[in-house]
Design goal:
single chain; alpha+beta; 3-stranded antiparallel β-sheet; 119 residues
């Protein structure tokens, strides 16, 4: 019983975190060929390129600066902060890229929209 009371008390003291997710469908541009239609070489790599860019340190650092996530008491290394806030995944066997941000409720949605639009 005491473990329940302690865990409930601790959960009340922890800061509220909210996760917002944006899903992006990646469609590479199509090019017409003079002698019929065929797949373009390298098109399968395009979704992973978007995934790498969305998860890049440069984009994340810009978003952190824009939304003031590392100021004051919350000052941490960019890599540590990135591990706690940002998650970028490509849904298997699809052209869907999911970008999630976990932070304060007021910032999570704005943060994930910014990263998605920049991507």
């Amino acid at each position: 019983m005491s473990a329940i009371v302690i865990s409930f008390s601790v959960s009340l003291l922890l800061p509220k975190r909210y996760t917002a997710t944006a899903s992006i469908v990646i469609e590479p541009p199509r090019q017409r060929r003079a002698h019929g239609y065929g797949g373009e070489p390298g098109v399968s790599r395009i979704p992973s390129t978007y995934e790498r860019f969305a998860a890049s340190d440069t984009l994340f650092a810009g978003a952190v600066e824009r939304f003031h996530l590392s100021s004051g008491e919350n000052a941490r290394s960019i890599e540590s902060l990135k591990q706690q806030v940002l998650k970028v995944t490509k849904v298997r066997d699809t052209k869907i890229l999911e970008i999630s941000a976990s932070t304060e409720p007021a910032l999570a949605q704005q943060f994930v929209i910014y990263v998605a639009e920049e991507t």
